[in-house]
Amino acid sequence: MVARAFILFLVGCTLFSDKSAFAMSVAYLECFRDLNSCGGYAWGAAVLDFLYDNLREASMHQTRTVSGYLTLLQAWVYEHFPALCANFCRLSHIYVEDYPRALRWKPKQDKGLVIPFRKALDEIDVDDICWTPYREHRPKRPFEVVSLFRGWIRWGPKMYAHFPDKVLRQIWICPNHP
Prior knowledge:
Layout: H1 2-13, H2 43-58, H3 70-80, H4 82-88, E1 89-91, E2 105-107, H5 114-122, E3 151-155, E4 158-162, H6 164-172
Antiparallel strand pairs: 1-2, 3-4
């Protein structure tokens, strides 16, 4: 029972954190009914769905904060926008390709970097984007065909759209670039 409570707390406060910082959905209780089956769940897809939903909500004008597993978002930004890393993070000297990819980056801890980071993000050009960021990581974590998934992902009672081709289309049809 204690192990279930701890795992529920850990999952609720990291992977599926919300804006309340102390509450979590009871929907996660079902996931830990049988601890032996937890390893078979698609936690990555669930976390990505939850993050998508929170990013969708954060893009609304009236929303002032974002929630979800922001470490995943931060690592994704550093991998795909290496120009940002020059001033806002550094590579970890202890990282090896066997480790989870998010451990590769050591962000600077300075609240004064928010406005310069936003400015740098606004000024990124298409040529500054790394389209194949995990090339050297592939031998340790092979590319799986499931990574090409396009469609709807269900997590609990919610469904989230996962259409990466729409994102590419928006980037490539940008009016400032041919």
